[in-house]
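Render this sequence as a predicted structure.
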Amino acid sequence: MNPRLDNARKIKAPHGTTLRAKSWLTEAPLRMLMNNLDAEVAE
């Protein structure tokens, strides 16, 4: 199965100042999306 379609993967919102994107301008929307998908943070 394609891993992008696998619903079993866990998405965790990043904490701290470590960047996953190339800059903070792209990191901010990435973190907002990941916060919505994180089961511990989302409502």
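Summary. The CA atoms of residues 11 and 22 lie 19 Å apart. The radius of gyration is 12 Å.
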